[in-house]
Structure formats: structure tokens, C-alpha cells
Write a sequence for this structure.
């Protein structure tokens, strides 16, 4: 929904403030989007600001209005800068567009339109019908980046899949004997925990569970909640004593063969078991992602071995690679993925570099699958 109103330097600065607020909500809003809002008076003074709270809590616009009210600041005739279209439907909270209208806002600047079928332009239309000036499209790309998973789930029904890999410069994720601790530096490992924390779910395979016995929770940084753990376990081989059961969080196990006794024992440990077989006796990965989408999972953070990595990539189910490369050569070892052998370069998986950043001694590369 384009706008013909040119944005000013002041508009851009206030939307940057709203985006910074949205980023503060990175770990808490799931399954809702991360949204920030700044309300500015005619004199340029900030009257109120806020970001979306946990699901069921107040949205960004409500928090900004409460902030203004708490400081006894009148918002009539003011401008609201919000990173996503104000909602127009009655869910756990009242429609934000109606609250903005009732507050007497004169103008609302929106970064981008909400893809939720229950909203999708209706919030903007209701604001305009009430005489509020609405301008759309300021810092749209940045707002979209904060909510990649929400947009993917709303438009495709499946979460954004981010495949995390830590490797040496020659592409090895472990020595031949399986030793991998630690290839990358402590800053890179801490950064990886931040990416875990922003995800709705961390996904791994039974091979990783049996070989490494990891917890796969967020420990290196403070977080208000732990992501759900998802395990691909075709034969329900997850040990009842596995470390993954220690953290307080949901554990979902997807299998291909429903062994009743094993399932009951795992469920007694608190796991939720879902049987989704494919024709080869493995878990149907595409169906699993559809199921996660229905469970309102926005972002999936994959930390698995080369086999599951290769399967997800081969089936075209990965959106993004989060790769940490250490400045070392490890020689013959275990690679990043098992994609088999290609006969021509045209068969190679094409990616585009989205971002390259040095983290400690290592490089963090965000690369996205070409679509």
C-alpha cells in the first residue's frame, strides 16, 4: 500500500525510534509480531512510546498511549509512528486502530502493512475513514526483517527456517571422531544463543541427541522464555534421561513409527509426540513445518547434523543459513551438510549473502536461499 506523501528527516528519525523499541520485544512477543510505537506532538516532542508485550498483553500502540497518559500528556492531534499496521480485529486485545481513533491522533505513519488475513489493510482503512492521515512505507525493509517468521507464517502457513552451522574455514563442523567443542570462539557461541532466544523453536535430530546429549536451551544470555525444542526422531529413540528434558520448556518429538510404549514413556516425561511419516519411513519434514505453522511457530532455529541439514536443504525447506566460520583449518572431518554429489554446477544450491559480520575472532554469515 504505497504512499504519495514524502517522508521527512524527522519522520525517519521517529520511525527509527519505533524500530528500536520493536527490537526490544525480540524475545517476548511470539507468536505475535514485534512492534514498536512512538507518539510525537506537533512540536516534535515525544509524548509516549512502547512496544508489544507478551501474547495476550498490550500491543505497542496501547503501551505508547499508556506511557503518554502516565505522564499526563495530551495526544490529541499528535502523530503515531508504528512499525506495523495497527490491528483491526478483536483478539486477545481490542483493535488498536479504534483506540488510536478514540485518542484523537491526527496522523499515523506505518512502516508496512500487516499480512494477517484478519487485518491486511483494514486497520489503515478504518483510520482513514475516521479522518486520520495515514502514510505507509517508511523503513519498510527494517520492519519486515524484525518479523520474517510472522510474515512467512501469515503468507505461507509455515515458519521461517534458519539453519545454524559452526564450522572451520574449510567447512568442517567436527573432526572425524566427532569432536567439535569448540570450533568457534566464546563470543560467537554467545551470539548463537541470542539467535536461539529470538526463535520460537529450536530444531534438532535424533543423531545429535544420541551423540552429543545437548540441552539446546538459551544459557549464555538473559531471556524471559525458552524456545520450544523440536526433535526429529523417526523411531522414537530419544532417551528418557536425555539432557534436553532438563530445561523448563515444551518438547515436541516428531516420529515416523508410533511405538506405543516409547511414546507413552516420552509423554510421561512431558514431551508431545506427533507421528508424521513419509513414504521412506522418515519424518515428513514438509508436513512437520506445516504442523509447526499451525502451532503458531514463527521462526525455527535448526541446530542439527549434516544429514538433517542436507534433508532440509534438499527439500527446499530452509530460508536462511546462519553460519559461523572460525579462522582455522581442520582437515578431513564432518561437513556442514549431506547434499550428495552434483554432476554440474547448475545443481548447486544458490544463495545470496545478506550480512557478513565479525563476531570475536569468527565471521558470522547470514545467507539466504535464492527463490
Amino acid at each position: 500500500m504505497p504512499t504519495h506523501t514524502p517522508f521527512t528527516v524527522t519522520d525517519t528519525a521517529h520511525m527509527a525510534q519505533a524500530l528500536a523499541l520493536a527490537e526490544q520485544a525480540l524475545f517476548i512477543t511470539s507468536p505475535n509480531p514485534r512492534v514498536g510505537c512512538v507518539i510525537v506532538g506537533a512540536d516534535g516532542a515525544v509524548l509516549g512510546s512502547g512496544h508489544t508485550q507478551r501474547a495476550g498483553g498490550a500491543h505497542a500502540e496501547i503501551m505508547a498511549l499508556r506511557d503518554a497518559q502516565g505522564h499526563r500528556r495530551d495526544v490529541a492531534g499528535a502523530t503515531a509512528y508504528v512499525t506495523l499496521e495497527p490491528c483491526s480485529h478483536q483478539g486477545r486485545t481490542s483493535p488498536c486502530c479504534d483506540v488510536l481513533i478514540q485518542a484523537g491522533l491526527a496522523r499515523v505513519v506505518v512502516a508496512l502493512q500487516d499480512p494477517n488475513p484478519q487485518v491486511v489493510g483494514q486497520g489503515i482503512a478504518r483510520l482513514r475513514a475516521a479522518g486520520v492521515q495515514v502514510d505507509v512505507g517508511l523503513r519498510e525493509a527494517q520492519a519486515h526483517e524484525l518479523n520474517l517468521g510472522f510474515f512467512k507464517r501469515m503468507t505461507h502457513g509455515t515458519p521461517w527456517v534458519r539453519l545454524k552451522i559452526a564450522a572451520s574455514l574449510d567447512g568442517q563442523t567436527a573432526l572425524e571422531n566427532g569432536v567439535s567443542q569448540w570450533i568457534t570462539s566464546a563470543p560467537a557461541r554467545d551470539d548463537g544463543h541470542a539467535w536461539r532466544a529470538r526463535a520460537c523453536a529450536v530444531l534438532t535430530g535424533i543423531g545429535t541427541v544420541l551423540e552429543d546429549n545437548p540441552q539446546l536451551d538459551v544459557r549464555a544470555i538473559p531471556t524471559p522464555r525458552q524456545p520450544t525444542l523440536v526433535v526429529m526422531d523417526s523411531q522414537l529413540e530419544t532417551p528418557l534421561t536425555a539432557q534436553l528434558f532438563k530445561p523448563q520448556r515444551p518438547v515436541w518429538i516428531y516420529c515416523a513409527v508410533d511405538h506405543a510404549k516409547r511414546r507413552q514413556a516420552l509423554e510421561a516425561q512431558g514431551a508431545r509426540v506427533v507421528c508424521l511419516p513419509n513414504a521412506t519411513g522418515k519424518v515428513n519434514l514438509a508436513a512437520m513445518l506445516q504442523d509447526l505453522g499451525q502451532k503458531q511457530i514463527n521462526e525455527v532455529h535448526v541446530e542439527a547434523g549434516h544429514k538433517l541439514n542436507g534433508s532440509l536443504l534438499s527439500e527446499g525447506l530452509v530460508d536462511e543459513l546462519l553460519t559461523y566460520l572460525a579462522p582455522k583449518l581442520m582437515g578431513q572431518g564432518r561437513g556442514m551438510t549431506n547434499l550428495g554429489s552434483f554432476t554440474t554446477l547448475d545443481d548447486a544450491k544458490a544463495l545470496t549473502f545478506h550480512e557478513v559480520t565479525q563476531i570475536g575472532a569468527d565471521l558470522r554469515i547470514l545467507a539466504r536461499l535464492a527463490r
